[in-house]
Design brief:
The protein is mainly α. The chain is built from 13 helices and no strands. The longest helix has about 35 residues, at about 220-255. It is globular. It starts with 10 loop residues before the first helix and ends in a 7-residue tail after the last helix. The relative contact order is 0.21.
Length: about 300
Amino acid sequence: MTSTITSSMSLTVWGALILLSVLWGGSFFFVEVALVDFPPLTLVTLRVGIAAMTLWSIVFILGLKPPKELKVWLAFLGMGLLNNVVPFVLIVWGQTQLASGLASILNAATPIFAVAVAGFLLPDEKANLLKIVGILIGFMGVVIMIGLPALAGAGGLVAQLAIVLATVSYAFAGVFGRRFKQMEINPIITAAGQVTGSSLVLFPIALFFDGPINFALPQMTSWLSVISLAVFSTAVAYVLYFRILAVAGATNLMLVTLLIPVSAILLGYFFLDESLEVIHFVGMGLIALGLSAIDGRLWRLFSRYSPLKIKV
């Protein structure tokens, strides 16, 4: 697989990554609210189905032409399975058994698997020591920020393994998704095709296990959460996802999971009147340190002028 990605991300890409973390950070909240009235499979199906309708509306408004080749649609289906069906179902089911804090910590392990998978399958994304150290520092920051007690939180081992398997699926999806840039497909169409493939797989499964939706039963807050989850945390988020993937690669893209807990805590502070404690700042500091190591530029600058001449 040929590549034109850059290992050091520009400020624009970092900004897009932060925005993506905010959109996905909100998804944990929306899922928690919506699970009150919707069973997991139905919720995931509504998420990707409404996202698909939103994205195809944008495609037609912009006058973009959907691809006609069978191989492209099969690629959309494969991406949908790896990036939506498998991880969404596992995470939403896991959240019915686990506290959201523990779910966030487990989800933040995604870059660790991304480094392993991308390093093995993509010759242009081999991990260096500095990137591995940065990911471990960042993951430590997530654990500290959310709180060590969350690691022993309520929930069974199977639910925890489900979320870990979801992160592995995300890692493979990042590698698989690199092909869409080579196909020269617009990121909006790629995002639309992915969630369409997911919808086609999930709809009959949800109908079989959960039955048809009684549209009168769910509360308005649940419906608003589903719509927000679909439009912002899925449709808009995946357009950003594929843009970042095309420019920065799978490993850098998965760093978003280190930023998601930061976004979730800051959103809680600004909109839910939650307090920020010292431990939060310590965790965020470690995440920032880890991300700077992964980016590498500041560390290389320090090495250049350091009398120790540390090789990074």
